[in-house]
Write a structure and sequence with these properties.
binds adenosine-5'-diphosphate; 38% helix; six-stranded antiparallel sheet; globular; binds magnesium ion; 335 residues
Length: 335
């Protein structure tokens, strides 16, 4: 049994609990993970880190030499760009940790970088263009709709029905709104109409395991709304999009398509060099071709999140799932 420090960021907690008090905070999630590791027989310490005091924390951990740090640090000092920084510091201080390293975390915080990596590895991902200025808006062919999203965010931030753009004017208008509100580049991608599948992958490099596939059930989505997982769908329980985007185990998926999805999800996980656990989101077009739309390193593993749901479907109770992630990380450092 191992000595494990569960470390989470505290910078967003206060702000988040003011805005959305019902949400599981990072701290609640970290507590659940600590309890799960304890139940699995590990010795556990729970530590929060806010930002600039990080050196003191690292120095202490460097001296205490835990077997593993369970890394739940998603940002520092109110800036998500410090998520990779923190992983880099852990490497500098030679503290073994769960999940992705600096490079993988940073690549996924730049969605166009992820796309370049996927494309270079021949992983199917929709055609795209990075939009930074008005000049970038010119010359997009509209033989099919485009979807726009913020280049540096996740959790569907900035995503509403207006992000599905069917005309150049609609795309320009929504893109300018996003630039103005979030002050960051926008990624335009071919909009893929079809099923949305979430794939949880455990492991590293050649040794990957795909957990039972889940998808978004859009049956309750009103027919005049696009079948996408908007910000409201993820965070506003009273919104029509919330009821219209129910995560469920996949059903009636042709075995050949399921096999393709698994192959593509593993290829995406490997291409971006995720470690231990990750989630790949895909859309499957009418021809049954899966397209990777999102690669998530260190995805949410709260008891009520998709990864835990996939693990449960694989017969892995929550404490076992959390312990498994820790074991995968420990084994990786031994290899
Ligand atoms: N190319 C696309 N075609 C269709 N829907 C998309 C596309 N890209 C994103 N979406 C929709 O937007 C949601 C959020 O986009 P995603 O790329 O997963 O970003 P995030 O990192 O915010 O989760 C997806 O779950 C999906 O419903
Ligand atoms: Mg996503």
């Amino acid at each position: 049994m191992a000595q494990i420090v569960v470390l989470y960021n505290t910078d967003f907690d206060e702000e988040q609990s003011k805005q959305t008090p019902d949400l599981t905070s990072v701290r609640d999630s970290a507590k659940a993970i600590a309890v799960a590791l304890h139940e699995s027989g590990h010795t556990v310490e729970l530590t929060g880190v806010h930002g600039v005091e990080v050196y003191a924390v690292l120095e202490r951990l460097h001296r205490a030499r835990p077997d593993l740090l369970f890394n739940l640090c998603e940002s520092m000092d109110n800036d998500a760009r410090n998520e990779p920084t923190f992983a880099g510091l852990l490497d500098l201080f030679k503290i073994p940790y769960t999940g992705a390293d600096l490079l993988a975390l940073a690549s996924c915080l730049h969605k166009h970088r992820t796309k370049e990596i996927l494309t270079a590895h021949h992983v199917p991902t929709p055609a795209y263009r990075l939009l930074r200025t008005d000049a970038d808006l010119a010359g997009l062919a509209f033989d099919r709709p485009w979807f726009v999203k913020l280049a540096h965010e996740d959790a569907s931030l900035g995503i509403t029905e207006a992000n599905v753009c069917r005309t150049p004017a609609a795309l320009a208008a929504r893109t300018r709104e996003l630039w103005a509100e979030f002050r960051e580049p926008v990624l335009a991608e071919h909009y893929i109409e079809g099923r949305e599948v979430n794939v949880t992958v455990f492991g590293w490099r050649e040794s990957l395991e795909v957990l039972p596939l889940h998808e978004i059930d859009f049956a309750a989505m009103p027919s005049d709304r696009p079948r996408i997982v908007s910000y409201a769908a993820k965070w506003d329980e009273s919104h029509v999009d919330y009821a219209g985007t129910k995560p469920v185990p996949v059903q009636n998926l042709a075995p050949a398509v399921a096999a393709d999805i698994e192959r593509v999800a593993k290829a995406a996980f490997r291409a971006v060099d995720l470690r231990d656990y990750g989630r790949v989101d895909l859309r499957v077009d009418a021809a049954g071709t899966p397209w990777v739309i999102d690669v998530n390193p260190n995805p949410d593993i709260s008891p009520d999140a998709g990864v835990a749901r996939a693990a449960a479907a694989a017969g892995m109770p929550y404490p076992k799932m959390v312990a498994r992630i820790a074991e995968l990380a420990l084994a990786r450092y031994r290899s």
